[in-house]
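dumping this here so i dont lose it
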């Protein structure tokens, strides 16, 4: 009898839903309202829980369908949670990928003949960070409740450069209009039609912006409904305080290497800082003309339309953020016109950023403005040599000091950071590292080391990066071994019986194998190369509590290289840290 009644109830509910779908849209609508709960804190650059309380005023039995939440620039989620594992495999069974919780309140629609009055129902839910549901998404958001996932996986995206709402996080959800419920008299109903009336949620450990505008930026929520495609939008101001107290002490390093067959120069610049510092809003890089002169022949590489996909690159860019598990890699283009050149850095999704720096040939500089409020511990730009290289040198003045002038996101701090360098390949200049780093040992044929940097020491999520370049006429590299200093170790795991690591990126070479031997990382290349960049992401490294709490400003890393002739060299790198 009870089963028959249940089947009867479901059939009536389905019929009622079908009749509702045929009703005119004019008689249905939903209007959202939004309030924020910032009682957990609102300090600039900090991490704090944020409450979002949404209510929906529905007409009849209508219910909200498409929900879009635009967080203001700088209010960011941590996509590097659990070392990035949440973006690879959905884990909704524990707390490792949990990013929030809340309560969904709905009204079960009346069922003619059985339930004449709407029944209010509240369901406790938990939010989980899961793999991106589509290409280009930063991550996915799964809503768990009643022992199963409610609705489809939401898409978390980074808005691109030029978006009217600024570069920031957008969350898109499709809200269900039915839930598995237990109703009075009827009992369990596997697909009861509902009218969703409220979502009370708390998102955990969001990173707050580093800007404190006089008129607060808004959290923007837009929604339509199942009965009406009209989008209704509400806003609520986000309070941010204490921007002027954020530290801002970026460091700057430069490495330059002259081509073996011409006067063009390969140039690499690196800006490093701690994750707790304010990000830069603008960066201006200036180079001494006596050392590096503009190569006017590079105008042949001018790109009129980056989006065309037909332009030649003039270099590359890398960025490391504590909020993403792997370094970001972009391409550099010479853009603009002969009347006004620009250097444009283009990063692909999930961080679709386009950073354009105005080139000043008179002052030999490039100035990037309007940089997004995203914390970066390392921002590197490498410009190619060759016929279209942007810089050349006569070697008459083989060394000098470049300067980086940086302004923080809030606009109240400006730092001028020097970067001493010498052009490797000029007579009398060894092909060693630049920017004040130190590398010793290895003999005359040892590779040159450039842009060594370490970040994340103060957060417990360290990353390490360095570039090796073979000297002129020296054999190319076939393998290298990385030995870490005390306090750092490799986070190993076994694959088919071999101990290896995750999060190792090698640019400029294809890797044959990665393995751990006696606590050291061994990288074997498929073929010999003359230049490569190694990045060890936070997923690769483990930091001791003693090192994390120490005041160390540099680390001594040992790299053992093997070249195509089987000869080995040992390099001792003193890598500048990023502690303030």
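and the seq i came up w/
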């Amino acid at each position: 009898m009870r089963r028959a009644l249940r089947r009867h109830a479901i059939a009536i509910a389905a019929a009622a839903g079908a009749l509702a779908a045929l009703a005119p849209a004019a008689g249905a609508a939903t209007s959202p309202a939004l309030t924020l709960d910032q009682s957990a804190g609102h300090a600039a650059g900090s991490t704090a829980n944020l409450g979002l309380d949404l209510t929906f005023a529905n007409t009849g039995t209508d219910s909200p369908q498409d929900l879009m939440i635009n967080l203001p620039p700088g209010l960011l989620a941590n996509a590097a949670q659990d070392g990035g594992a949440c973006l690879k495999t959905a884990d909704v069974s524990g707390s490792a990928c949990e990013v929030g919780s809340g309560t969904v309140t709905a009204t079960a629609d009346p069922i003619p003949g059985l339930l004449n009055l709407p029944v209010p129902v509240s369901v406790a839910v938990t939010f989980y960070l899961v793999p991106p549901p589509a290409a280009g998404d930063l991550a996915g958001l799964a809503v768990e409740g009643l022992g199963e996932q409610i609705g489809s996986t939401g898409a978390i995206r980074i808005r691109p450069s030029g978006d009217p709402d600024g570069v920031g996080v957008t969350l898109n959800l499709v809200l269900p209009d039915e839930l598995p419920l237990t109703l009075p008299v009827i009992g369990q109903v596997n697909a009861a039609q509902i009218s969703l009336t409220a979502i009370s949620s708390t998102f955990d450990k969001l990173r707050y912006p580093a800007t404190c505008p006089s008129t607060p930026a808004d959290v923007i929520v837009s929604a339509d409904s199942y009965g009406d495609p009209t989008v209704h939008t509400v806003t609520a101001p986000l309070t941010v305080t204490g921007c002027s107290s954020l530290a801002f002490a970026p460091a700057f390093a430069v490495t330059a290497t002259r081509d073996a067959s011409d006067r063009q120069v390969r140039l690499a610049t690196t800006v490093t800082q701690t994750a707790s510092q304010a990000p830069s809003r603008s960066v201006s890089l200036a180079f001494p003309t006596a050392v590096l002169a503009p190569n006017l022949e590079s105008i042949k590489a001018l790109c009129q339309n980056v989006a065309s996909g037909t332009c030649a690159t003039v270099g590359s860019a890398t960025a490391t953020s504590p909020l993403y598990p792997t370094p970001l890699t972009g391409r550099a283009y010479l853009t603009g016109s002969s009347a006004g050149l620009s250097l444009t850095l283009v990063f692909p999704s999930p961080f679709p950023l386009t950073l354009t720096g105005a080139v000043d040939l008179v002052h030999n500089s490039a100035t990037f403005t309007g940089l997004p409020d995203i914390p970066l511990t390392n921002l590197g730009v490498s410009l190619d040599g060759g016929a279209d290289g942007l810089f050349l040198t006569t070697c008459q003045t083989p060394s000098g000091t470049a300067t980086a002038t940086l302004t923080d996101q809030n606009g109240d701090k400006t730092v001028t950071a020097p970067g001493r360098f010498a052009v490797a390949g000029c007579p009398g200049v060894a092909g060693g590292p630049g920017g004040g780093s130190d590398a010793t040992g290895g003999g005359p044929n040892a590779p040159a080391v450039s842009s060594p940097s370490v970040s994340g020491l103060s957060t417990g999520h360290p990353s390490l990066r360095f570039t090796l370049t073979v000297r002129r006429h020296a054999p190319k590299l076939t393998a290298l071994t990385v030995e870490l200093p005390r306090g750092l170790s490799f986070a190993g795991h076994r694959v088919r019986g071999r101990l290896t690591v995750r999060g190792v990126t090698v640019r400029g070479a294809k890797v044959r194998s990665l393995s751990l031997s006696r606590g050291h990382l061994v990288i074997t290349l498929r073929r010999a190369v003359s230049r490569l960049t190694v990045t060890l992401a936070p997923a690769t490294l483990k930091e001791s509590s003693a090192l994390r709490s120490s005041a160390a400003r540099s680390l001594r890393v040992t790299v053992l290289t093997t070249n195509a002739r089987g000869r080995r060299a040992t390099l001792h790198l003193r890598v500048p840290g990023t502690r303030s």
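The two ends are 73 Å apart (CA to CA).
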